[in-house]
C-alpha cells in the first residue's frame, strides 16, 4: 500500500493551491481528480478586484489578501516560466448621473484612496466604451487565466507522481482514527476540494452552500484597445488579439452546467449598453460557483472524523481567496495554528447529525 501524508480530492483552484503548498512543505500528496466533470475553475473569468458592488464595498480581508495574491501568482509565474496573471486594473464608467453621485460620495466617505482614482469623461483611453460621465479606476485588480494555470499545476503534480485522474468513491473510503485508506493508498489525512460537487458528498452535504450558476461569453471585438477590465455590473476582460470575455450571470434556481439562450441575450444586451464597437460572439461557457450562504469559505475538519477536511466555499472569489487561505490551511494542518473563525466550518457544527 502506498503511504501518503495527504489525499486531496479535486484539482480546481482550491485543490491545486492546497496540494502545491503541501508539496512545498515536503509532504507526500496525491491529488485525485475526476477529469470528466465540468468545473467552476475552468470557466471562471478569473477577476480579482478589491472594490466591488453597488456600494464600492472593500472585499473582505482586501488589505491582507491582495498583497498576498500578487506575490503568490508572480512567484508561480516565475517558477513555471508561464504568464497567466494579468495586472490590468479595472475601469468602471458611471452608468448614469445618479450612480456617479453615489460613487463620488462613497469615494469621499470611505478611505479608498489606495485603490480608487476618479477618471474624467474626456479620457482618451476609454473612447471605445460610453464614457460621457467619466468613472472610477481601480488598481490592484486584474485577472488570472485560470485554466492555463491549472494545466501547468496539473503537469507539475503529474511529474511528481502526485496526480491521478479518477473520481473518488466515498463507499470505498475507509476512515479510522489514525488513517485513511482508499484503494491502494493509505494517507494520514484527506482533504475534499470538490467545489459544487461537495453537495453530493455525504461527509459534507450538511454545510449551507448556496450555489450560483454563472455564464460568460467569448467574443471578437475588432480593434479593441482598452487594456483594463471594464465593468458596469457586467464586465469585459481584454484577452488580447481583439478577443474578449463578457460576463457574467448569477442564477440560483436552475443549477446545471449548460449554456442558455437567456443568459446569452442578457449578457449581450448589458454589454451593448456600454461597448460602442460591434462584436461577434464566438463562444459561451457555464459553470456553478461554490457560493455559501454567509459568503465565507468552508474550511476545517469534519466534526466527527478529525483527519477528514474540507477546503471549499470560495464562491465568486476563488482567485483572490484561494492563495491566502491555502497558506492558512497549511499553517492549520502542519503548525497547529488556529483557523480564522469566520472561515472555519466549526461555525456550522450544530447542523451536523449522524
Ligand atoms: C461563470 C463564472 C465566472 C466566475 N468568475 C470568477 C472570477 O472572475 N473571479 C473569481 O475569483 N472567481 C470566479 N468564479 C468562481 C470560481 O470559479 C470559483 O471560486 C473557483 O473556481 C472554485 O474552485 P474549486 O476548486 O473550489 O471548485 P472547482 O473548480 O469546481 O473544482 C472542483 C474539482 O473537484 C473535482 N471533483 C469533484 N468531486 C470529485 C470526486 N468525487 N472525485 C474526484 N474529483 C472530484 C472536479 O472534477 C473539479 O476538478 C466564477 C465562476 C463562474 C461559474
TrEMBL record:
Record EC number: 2.1.1.61
Native organism taxonomy: Bacteria, Pseudomonadati, Bacteroidota, Cytophagia, Cytophagales
GO biological process, alphabetically ordered: methylation
Broad EC category: transferase
This protein's record includes keyword Ligase: no
Protein name: tRNA 5-methylaminomethyl-2-thiouridine biosynthesis bifunctional protein MnmC
Keyword DNA repair: no
Pfam families documented for this protein: DAO (PF01266)
GO molecular function, one term: tRNA (5-methylaminomethyl-2-thiouridylate)(34)-methyltransferase activity
SUPFAM superfamilies for this protein: FAD/NAD(P)-binding domain
Domain FAD dependent oxidoreductase: 5-328
Entry-linked InterPro entries: FAD-dep_OxRdtase (IPR006076), FAD/NAD-bd_sf (IPR036188)
Keywords of this entry: Cytoplasm, FAD, Flavoprotein, Methyltransferase, Multifunctional enzyme, Oxidoreductase, S-adenosyl-L-methionine, Transferase, tRNA processing
